[in-house]
């Protein structure tokens, strides 16, 4: 099924469908009907908000690649939601989580760097033709771009494309591989978030530090909660999108200036406009948490942020196309082996260090999914934890190019 055969291409109609899906999921999640009660015992609502749009995209009803909705949601709704989430942020409490969060983030990055060449080597033992190729068609060149986006983000992926120069066809297949594997892993993590207690029991992890922050945030919210007036809602939206506007203005000026005057900083993704958009929005949101505007949390700031984030989740879901990977089915084997190595390593480290599943999930998605996906996973544990995912994902931008470059060279070394 190709993008041209999509049944619905009007973004206004697609947005209506996505919002209807969100409405249906949340309405049924509160239903007492036995079918829905049994369904949501096993499937968390957030997972359906992601999966149903993906199903429509995979079957050709809508086209995620042709729609502008994801671009709009990631550039406008994501920074706006981050501003509102960080309004009630307690930085001193978040700082206490730095050791566990940092450990799992670094573990995730290293496992991706080493997992790539390990996957190429393992697949070459029984199917060398899959990981072979010469010149621009060499599979390792394409896989290096996957390493770029899995450790860092889109800017790092573009950097690897310029450095190793895979063919356009090979790069297209790698984009499909990246989308399929990363979103499949996201689905698994969302499901795991609903089984957090059981997984922590398996890891023998003490989730007290994360629970304490959630409890403090919930207690703070209850203490200041009030029935919001229209003026409150307008003010909340004014702050969210006002700061988003400032972030865009800053990104539109800072990124081009660095590109022109210090292009070597592209290694750290500092020439990426999206990087600065996330940085500025998150920073200003954290600064506002030290002002009286923090009390807007009582009028529902984080709930509005959650609404914006769920719209983003739906647009992320519509990017997943199971059919696209069939163009180069061989690379799917490499991708699955690669992600399995990543999963084994992070679970092993979490088990040995008794690290809560929250840090494992967010640290992993901060690498593989980046700033657009990491807050989704974090918010699945609690909406107020979303900024932690973004803060970790930002670090991926800095190390993504270096890590992916080293990974690419190692994959070249083990390729047949």
Key traits:
single chain; 416 residues; mainly alpha; Na+/H+ antiporter like fold; 74% helix; globular
Structural class: mainly alpha
- Anisotropy-based shape: globular
CATH class: Mainly Alpha
In round numbers, the mean pLDDT is 85
What's the domain count?
A: 1
Distance, first to last CA: 33 Å
CATH T-level fold name: Na+/H+ antiporter like fold
Structure in words:
- This protein is mainly alpha-helical and 416 residues long.
- The chain has helices at residues 11-29, 34-42, 45-58, 69-87, 91-95, 98-126, 139-151, 154-164, 168-193, 196-203, 208-224, 230-261, 273-288, 301-317, 329-353, 357-368, 374-381, 386-414.
- The mean pLDDT is 85.
Summarize it:
The chain is an all-alpha fold. The chain has one domain (3-414): Na+/H+ antiporter like fold (Up-down Bundle). The protein has helices at 11-29, 34-42, 45-58, 69-87, 91-95, 98-126, 139-151, 154-164, 168-193, 196-203, 208-224, 230-261, 273-288, 301-317, 329-353, 357-368, 374-381, 386-414.
